[in-house]
Amino acid sequence: MKFKLLSLMMIGGSLAISCQQQSADNFNYADEKFADIQMLRYKVAGFDQLTLDQKKLIYYLHEAALVGRDILWDQNGRYNLRIRKLLESVYTSDVLTDKNSDNRKAFEEYTKQVWFSNGIHHHYGSTKFQPQFTEEWLREQLDAIDYKEELPEGTAILEKASETWEELMPVIFNPEILPMRVNQKDGDDLILTSASNYYGVDVTQSEAEEFYENMRDPKDSEPIMYGLNSRLVKEGGKLVEKKWTTDGLYGPALQKIVYWLEQAKPYADTDQQKIVIDKLIEYYQTGNLKTFDEYCIEWVKDTEGLVDFTNGFTEVYGDPLGLKASWEAIVNFKDLKATERTKKLSANAQWFEDNSPVDPRFKKEECKGISAKVITAAILAGDLYPSTAIGINLPNSNWIRKEYGSKSVTIGNLTDAYNKAARGSGFGKEFIIDQKTRDLIEKYGDACDDLHTDLHECLGHGSGRLLPGVSDDSLRAYGSTIEEGRADLFALYYLADPKMVELGLVPDQEAYKSNYYTYMMNGLMTQLVRIKPGHNIEEAHMRNRSWIAHWTYENGKEANVIELVKNNGKTYVKINDYEALRSLLGQLLAEVQRIKSEGDFQAARELVEKYGVKVDPELHEEVLARYATLNISPYKGFINPVYSLEKDTDGNITDVKISYDEKYDAQMLRYSRDYATLPLIN
Ligand code: ZN
Fold it and tell me: Which of 71, 278, 350, 607 could bond 327 through an S-S bridge, CB–CB 3.0 to 4.6 Å?
């Protein structure tokens, strides 16, 4: 599970009043803006202090990460790789002279959006981008360049380039075609109406659900993650899984990943890491999900080294049924100093479990192997790039988490970059009710946001247990948002616990209020800046922030715990009783854990549909108008650093260098050139 940016940082930024564009360390954290996006850069502090072997390990693992890029593009939609090729042909062509027209500018913006989302649908909202240039203009450009010439050798492509255009044009321009990447609308056939490429075009939701229902054995106490690594298609009227393996679907990309993993192996940081790499290679070669579980278990055990990585089909947010995993990768190394913080939490995991407000039947009797650390990201790839998570907790398999534990990370250098890039945005001044509350958030905000992430990842996801016989995915389409909300509630509940002060994680018993305020403000109001007028909330994390905030607001109404007050026509969140709010959060945590542990689909659906999905149109309009005056990009993502090998005259590697000056479009074009591993149609 991954943890996306929380509250203020996510959309505005921290509340520091000072307005410095460049940080004291002279590093450019903020880069270009386009559409609703701000590009940032992260600094890989500490890389120069690593040993040469560790640097080589990171280098080879970073190649294994980047080379998987095309997989995600194809998973996000069956036309994406072809459209990317088409757009890049026009973007880079030097025969075109039309570089300053409005159409061209709109085209460049669109291309940057498509790169950012790894496809033609918004990375977060999941709706299809509507180009602001005309189809006629694009056709003129394509006529002017020899599009077919641009296609790589061996590409499975239609006979005539023009036929390809004809197929792609409606996909790009017609808003009715494939409007959503992931449709979560209750009552729709979620598979037929989602553009993501995890199921054949003619597979229905009920067929897919039945297919996987039949595979399950409710008595199996160690179930594999059914359906995780395949596309489900119909062949001759029969449903079959096309597995993603080195000789199956996505084979050419997976073969290259395996090649780089083999290069990395001799430099593994620990002997255990060599076992991990071997298991991962075996899994990519066989597609056997039992092997994947074995790999996860070995990976959880590998905690001694400094360098770590994940590379694989991991998170299921992109599949409306929550079964099939998008491909992603990250390479990182431990931030030893900051890890002290998370060690304190994991060392007390059992205490947190025992003292939570949850019914004892749903608690873990023994918390095993939760290892938590703060890491420095060295490269982001697949579904973690350019938009990324700031915390990750893996593996996702419930029985492995129960038997072997999980690894939880907070990505320190990314959070740091968000904070530094966002100083002085004016966001807090606009939306926070008064100076007193702004001061509170200024004083404690950054530290409490970090702690919230740690609690969410290293304790929240790891807490609780399913009752025997309840399957991992019994909450179906509501599973992701319930799980994310559960982890958030665990974090919120404990942020206010005196234990935090006792452990020295917050300075005093006031600090948690900063996080409570920003969480409620975000869930009730400000996250709406990411939603277009008339749209519902779709994304799992946004839904959970909404249902937590609205449930506590409604249930605290009688006691006047939280109010929405108006001042000069502007709405503000006012929290009257922080302690009562904590106890509401505790109640909701207990209920949500019950829903999860019992697999109570109906209750999950009611909670999410009632509090998490719908938007008050009037408040929405107001929030959008206020936000527009601030000129802040609601989404952020990262440009990766560039790694290069230094060699002596005999060709031996003497060092690995890192640089931070590559432009966003240059990086995307380089990746498309150097890491194009798949045919355009898969
Ligand atoms: Zn999470």
Answer: 71
> In this model, does residue 16 exceed pLDDT 80?
no
Q: Extract the tokens encoding 280.
A: 């991962």
Name the token pair of 594.
Answer: 């019950």
Phi, psi of 644 (to 5 degrees): -140, 150
Kindly give the distance from the C-alpha atom of residue 589 to the centroid of ligand 1, in angstroms, as a whole number: 15
Question: 22-41, pLDDT tens digit by residue?
Answer: 455 678 899 999 999 999 99
Please answer whether residues 92 and 84 qualify as being in contact, where contact means their C-beta atoms are separated by less than 8 angstroms: no
537 C-alpha to center of ligand 1: Å?
18
Tokens of 32: 């270009």
Beta strands in 250-347 (DSSP E): 307-315, 326-334
The mean pLDDT value for 467-478 works out to 90
Q: Given pLDDT bands bounded at 50, 70 and 90, which one contains residue 215? A: very high
- Give residue 424's pLDDT band: very low, low, confident or very high (50, 70, 90): low
The CATH code that applies to domain 4-44+271-638 is: 3.30.540.30
What does the domain layout of the chain look like in residue ranges?
4-44+271-638
Q: Which residues have a Cβ under 8 Å from the Cβ of 523 and sit 6 or more positions away?
A: 545, 546, 548, 549, 550
Task: Kindly give the distance from the C-alpha atom of residue 452 to the centroid of ligand 1, in angstroms, as a whole number.
Answer: 11
Which regions of 534-620 does DSSP assign to beta strands (E)? 562-567, 570-575
% the chain with pLDDT above 70: 93
Which neighbouring-strand residues pair with 333? 307, 376
pLDDT beyond 80 at 406? yes
DSSP, collapsed to helix, strand or coil, labels residue 539 as coil
Please state, in angstroms and as integers, the Cα–Cα distance from residue 551 to each residue in 258, 620, 681, following that order.
47, 18, 45
**Cβ contact 72:114 at 8 Å:** no
Distance 392 CA to ligand 1 centre (A): 7
Six token digits for residue 438: 């702004």
